[in-house]
Amino acid sequence: MASSDDEADVGPQSVSNYYFVDDEDAPTSFSVLPLQWSKSESVNEKKKQQMFLHGSVDNGLQTIHKEVTAWKFDLLNEIPDISVLTKENNWIKLEKPRKSFEEIIRTVLITVHCLHFARRNPEASGKSVWDHLCKVFSLYDVRPSLNDLVDHMALISEAVRRDDWLAKSKFLLAFLEEKPRKRKLSDEDVKATTVSAFIVDNVDDDILEDAVEDESDEVDELFDSVCAICDNGGALLCCEGSCMRSFHPTRLDGEESNCDTLGFTRREVDAIERFLCKNCEYNQHQCFACGELGYSNKSSGAEVFRCANATCGHFYHSHCIAKLLHQEDEVAVGELEKKVATGESFTCPIHKCYICKKGENKKIKELQFAVCRRCPTSYHRKCLPKEIVFEKKEEEEEEEEEEGKGGGGGGEEEEEETAAARAWEGLLPNRVLIYCLKHEIIDDLGTPSRDIRFPNVEEKKKKRILELPGSSGKLLPKKRRLTSEDSFSAKTVAKELNGSYSGVTKIASIKRSEKISSGSDLLRKVKTNDAFRKSLKENTKSCSTDVDRSATTTINKTSLGDRLYRVMTKRSEQVKLQKQVLHSSELNKTMTVKTSARKLSNELPSLDAETEKRILALIKEAASSITMDDVKKKHKVPSTHAYSSKTVVDKTITTGKVEGAVEAVRTALRKLEDGCSTEDAKAVCEPEVLNQVFKWKNKLRVYLAPFLYGMRYTSFGRHFTKVEKLKEIVNVLHWYVQDGDMVVDFCCGANDFSCLMKKKLEETGKKCSYKNYDVFQPKNDFNFEKRDWMTVQPDELPKRGSQLIMGLNPPFGVKAALANKFIDKALEFKPKLLILIVPPETERLDKKRTPYDLVWEDDQFLSGKSFYLPGSVDENDKQMEQWNVTAPLLYLWSRPDWSVKHKAIAQKHDHLFMRRGGSNLEKSCHDSKSPDHPVEVHCCNPGTSEVTDDLYMESKEPNHEIALIGGRKECSPHENGDKESQDSHGLERNRSEETSRKTKHIEDKIGRGTGEKLPKNKWKGGKPSGSDTNKEVPHRSPTNVVDGRTSQEGPPSRSLETPMHTKVGENSLPNLESGMPSSHLPYGTAYGGSMSYVHEDVGSKYSMNGMEYSHGIHGFPHANLEEQSTGNMREIAEDIGYRSYVTGLERGSDMRSQVRFYGQDVDYSVQRNYLGGLEPGYGQMGPLSSIPYGHVGAAVESSYRMNMPAMQRYAPRLDELNHTRMNNFGSDPSMLNRNNIIYDSRAPRPGPPGGHVDSMGFAPGPQYPYPHSSAGWLNE
Amino acid sequence: MHYSMEPTAEAKYAAFEEKVKRTIFVDNLSPQVTEPVLKKALDQFGTVESVSFIPNYLEAGNIPCCALVEMENAEKAKKVISSITQFPFMMAGMPRPVRGRLAEAEMFDDRPVKPGRKIHCRWLDPSDPDFEVAKKLKYLTQKHAAEASFLLKQQLNREEKLHNQQVETLKANFKKYEMIIGVLSDKTAQNLADHYGMRISDDS
Questions:
Q1: Best residue in A599, A669, A1201 for a mutation probing chain B (most B CBs within 10 Å)
Q2: Which residue windows does the record flag with biased composition (Basic and acidic residues) (chain A) (predicted)?
Q3: Do B193 and A681 touch (CB under 8 A)?
Q4: What pTM does this model have?
Q5: Starting at the edge strand that comes first in sequence, how are the strands of the sheet with A742-745 ordered?
Q6: Residues in chain A with pLDDT < 50?
Q7: Residue B188: its chain A contacts at CB < 8 A?
Q8: How far is B16 from chain A (nearest CA, A)?
Q9: Which of A698, A815, A1051 faces B187 most closely, judged by CB atoms?
């Protein structure tokens, strides 16, 4: 079909929103069409199938549907043009593809763009090319990568051949030459189908892997990204072991670089979960200096030792490394040798520049290293000797040579290429890969000899290395392979068998001939071989492990033969076996199936082999009909749950790397502590490695979350806001809603919010509409649509932004990523109000491009157990609640043009106080059910208020302080505005005074704190007078146990606990004695016991900050701290015990501030605890109890996670403790009234609390809405 | 008597059929899943009316549990199924998701007799012309059973393999995690970071 230059104006010039389909309407890429290279050329290839172009033309006014016959691209313009030829001989330029079609043509688009860029920037390095492509294809989920190009190798090579400009591109040449060993490409035409078939098979995998690699980019930055054998990149398999190497797993992967590879098949690779190379498996590693294998097992007679650097992974003999490190100084050599041999860590010379002996700095290009792959030698880029040349244009020459070689079946060009490339960019992350001048580059390989030895196969390997250069001239690369392992094993097996069993020999010889005849049929050959080997395995069970791996390289040929021989002679029915072997070889692929079928048929006599075969075939068919892609397609993940990082975790964070890094971190610190320079430490453990460790932790934690959380993890990891909380939100929010508004819950969960809103709004006479989205079906269908919020378009909602109230509880995601996404999406709708429950790290809406105004926020409201885990039950089959480490915030954001109005409403209804810190008080008052604060006032002990204000000055963490004070400040408006609860005014007033004068405030607070403490001391003292002593003492030990555990897990708590514990014990005795009649001697112990609670509380607070059981005692740490920091504590006579306790606390100064901090919270928590006890109704305020969590949680997060299980384990016991404590209170005469109440309320509610309560200003609120109040939560 | 039973039997069967329609069959349950667990797990999608585990009479031991979960209506049942099939639905820490599909009448062991269906049992004499047919049927049933059991075995083998693989991976990853936690918890890493003057992002 002559297409020539007919760009006649028949029909449209360009098409957008296009896609191509084949005659079966399946989307397909135009790249399968013949390509017209130049106008003068016509396309004469017969097209295999029809293809149709769909799309819109004339700016979308018309749509077209045309059959197309060819395509071309033009690189001359600013952006590359791609056109297709219609059947009417009209070229149509392709503008923008339809979104869904992008994926299908991605590879060809990327290839064309790559060519375009390379043509315009011939000097561009690989990195800049990829940067550019990433920019161009930024919308693609998967970043462009080599795999996209590999698909169009033929196209690229042809383009390079035809275009002189392209031929100058360093990148393309490197791509064609270095990476994929282009000589094979030269005879592409001949083998085009085979090669592309290979690649096509792999493309999908590669793209997936690619996605993975992209994510893990940072991870791999630090470690080798090239094959240990051939030093080329591509699809690699990481060894899990300490060598930290990667290998080309399959022949195909290593084909480009003539790599020996591990010789796996693709399927085997997929089946391997954790790959351990032979060296690591047998603990035999090569010395990087001398190349000999040596035992590396540290625990038993190691000969070689690993470099301490986190990313190095090279092993050395002690004498080798000693020689390397101290070249001249023989004494030092001897010394070091001994040291190393006894296990002292060392860093090998790789980590210092060979010339200037300085370390590496990856951030500065000049100081990046060029690392030799054959010996421990590194140079800075700036120090790199000139003789080590980068791959350059000589390559062209070489390439031609090699083309000639490939095509002609091998000239005798064996001459040494003097200027052979020795350095490569872009293969190692931030480094240059070099072969230093000591190593002779073998022309045929492009690398020095490849001397990677695995245990057992040493001999064979050596032989082959010798063999290679000689054979290269005569044989094509592929043919050469035949002489190596693959056929090796077969051949040798055959040979071994030859003597005794002619049958077997026959197979082998058949096989051999087959292989030779179809030299290019690599894949099949491997398979045949596999099947054969497998059949052997079936019969000769003895050679399991080695053969099992079917790593051809690792098969010890003689032993295999021997073993086979042995087995065979042992067996009497040799003939039968022979037959079977014969049989299997005939069957090739189905071989395994058959043997297993036969085996099974013995067990199931009623089934004949035929049936089983049929069933197995069915299974196989069914299995093969399901591919990962299908599954992924079927399970369309909502946009918010992008591709999981599972594989990343699996394959790239290898045990070896982690181990190495962790060890290196320790070594580095030890070195620093021993007085080494930072540079030395960095040679062991680069800062990046350290960073990596943290990243790993996060990644692993995300990955392992379901397992770390165990039973908690049912459902989709969602958390729902509790209905009670929602009710409160509704109570506040409804004021802002106007008649006719629309309430949109973008992630509705149980769909309670809208229902509650509706109810409330209808009560107040407002008629609104509702819309609820979620990707999961809720129980309640009220106005629900099962949609991914990200896919909802603004015009789908019947209301405009000024009538929209949106938001609520989005999924948070790691680092609030999902929450941000949801909010951004919501902002597209321009709602007048956004109500949000989001983690603190969420980007604030006043920082957005279209900023919103904050009406109010509340960081306390949702602390504690405001959430539950839907679909999860605890061990008692109760709905599982969720306690949060860091309380999410409740925000109300207003669109700027509505802000004034909304703020006025907020003002009017006293919502402004719903601010940081103040909210709890507010909340409680708001509901006028919790007249708790007076308790505090009552407890106030003015005597202790001498504590001065330098308390705060000492604080090492001013932030916290400010936050606290800020919190107070924000309380004050509430105080002014609130008229609902008289009772709380005392406290409120206190607060407002505090804000006005810092000093006073502190005093007051301390007063309060100590005040609480004092009565409690009394309680403690009094407690033993009851019958509880017995209870008390035994309970101490469990406490300790708990502490012990938690201290292991929660680092901060450890330093606190032990010392204070003992001291408390000592001091409390005399203390008590002084305070009490001597008859109370035994109570001293009890007292000590109670002290141990205190610190237990602290400990558990730190390490398991989710626990709420311990508030009763918080007054102590609070007071202690204050006292301790001011030094005033001694003034409080009874508190000797505390002082010592405090000394314990002093351990970590940073900890102090945390503790104090949490002391602050104690005000609330203590009082709440009373109340919680007093009045379960207050349990509704349960969230108050978690004030501490917000703050403390932040400090202790890591331990928190780990502690979850422990916490669950110990919960009952701790609970018990809690109980006794309460009991003890009860026995205190001075506090009798109150204590009684406390005590009683923990038991089933007694009669009316009576006058005491009233006199104390408690409004009796006898509701029992929850089975458990905040303090009683553990009773569950 | 027989006559009067007939309509009620039909009504009963109709009711049963309704029940079947709103019931889902959940498979691949972890042995740890109890009725409350299952109930709560599915309750988030709709009201669960009843849960009944299907005992496994045939194979002893290791076969994953399955259960019938009755939802409030057929509509809901379908939605639940789509919810738990669309996304991997984990239950009680099981590393593999559960599977759900609509229940079938045969899954209920308490199903009423289908109205109008009559089963006659009688002995066949070897000389009876039906004897050969019955024998063939019997043989066929046996064969099917054998086939099913063979298939099951294959499947279990695969599953076990997969399971082992998953366990191994999990253990390995957990070990890594512990190693890292180890170096973090004794403050080594943090101290080193201090020495380097690095800011470590220990958040998230």
A1: A669
A2: 969-1015
A3: no
A4: 0.46
A5: A784-786, A769-774, A742-745, A804-808, A833-838, A889-894, A853-858
A6: 1-9, 180-220, 393-417, 458-562, 564-565, 567-604, 642-647, 915-1276
A7: 665-666, 669
A8: 24
A9: A1051
